[in-house]
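#struct-pred

JT: dropping the chains for the assembly here, can someone run the whole complex?
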Amino acid sequence: MSKVKVLCYSVSMDGFAAGPDQSLENPMGVGGMALHAWVLPTKTFQAMHSEMTGSAPGEGTTGVDNDFASKGFENIGPWILGRNMFGPIRGAWKADESWEGWWGETPPYHSDVFVLTHHPRKSIEMKGGTVFHFVTDGIESALKKAKAAAKGKDIRIGGGASTIRQYLTAKLIDEMHLALAPVVLGAGEPLFAGLNLPALGYECSKYTPSENAAHLVFRKK
Amino acid sequence: MSKVKVLCYSVSMDGFAAGPDQSLENPMGVGGMALHAWVLPTKTFQAMHSEMTGSAPGEGTTGVDNDFASKGFENIGPWILGRNMFGPIRGAWKADESWEGWWGETPPYHSDVFVLTHHPRKSIEMKGGTVFHFVTDGIESALKKAKAAAKGKDIRIGGGASTIRQYLTAKLIDEMHLALAPVVLGAGEPLFAGLNLPALGYECSKYTPSENAAHLVFRKK
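RK: done, full complex below.
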């Protein structure tokens, strides 16, 4: 059966998964890029980036950070994203529906991606096998659709914080890997606030620090 | 001039410095002892513990965790503690004033310790040079008294979370070392909630992970 996973999700040491004021210029919110410093130099990210941009692949680092980055795609089929993970637009979609995600014409998903939104929109087929679907009837419906599309693969909840919090609260996540980055943001999108992980049945089952992040794996008890 | 430091302060990965429901049986709150698992086996803690209890000193570990534990006492003179760090009693002191702290007759401070409280009480002289003073007129008064007693040494703010938050908000802390323990508590005493460290001028200047904790040092920018 498909597992539901959060993987490679970066959080600041004071618990923010993105900085404040997300915009076209600051997709991760102000200061939020620092959360991802651990993954950018990895071989896995370098390969993904070159695939997206068409640039020559960088060499990239191996080791703990790359191991986690690589596991982030292992046996992953469909993704579920919150609407802000897909773009900076709030409210209704623009009439020309020109926004097709942050990732250019070949997004790194190569699978069905279910985007949670209150605003209906037709599916978009991208290069490389990524299809964005827009789900307006809630997290359980999105998960049902993802499972139907999974064909034995696992489902990755890509974020953002609000989406992950909703799935955790509903106890629908089987495994969660967080990368705590050695920065504080002070404001932004909080992951833990008001969330009692032990009470929801989650425990930190693995702690693997690297020089760039404290990697934590959570599983259901 | 004396520096004001928070050192070896343990926090869960979801931001709690103690579990909920502190009591005589659970000085760190329910589940809170897990936060301190990194320090208990260290040579520094083993020596301190044997000094407090009179037991034979354990050998103890050396390495990153012990380096931080040891630095926690380097050039430290007076301490400042919140009232709950001193004991489980809430409200007025008991008539017999028999409570003399968690640490037995020889507390590990060997200096003046200023306890923040709303309830006046006479100072208590303990074995080994520790003197508990009770300060009822606020954090700045306690710091002034500590500085007057410091004689060139530094002042350590021992906690709890509420006390540290007050000193951080007043920008009175020069250096803060947190040990993030690989556990989640889900409830208890939050350290970061509503606290914008970058806006207060603090940044994470050093990240040193060990197998047992992610050590972070914060300094004023």
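JT: nice. Chain B has one domain: 4-35+74-92+111-220. The CA atoms of residues 100 and 220 of chain B lie 35 Å apart.
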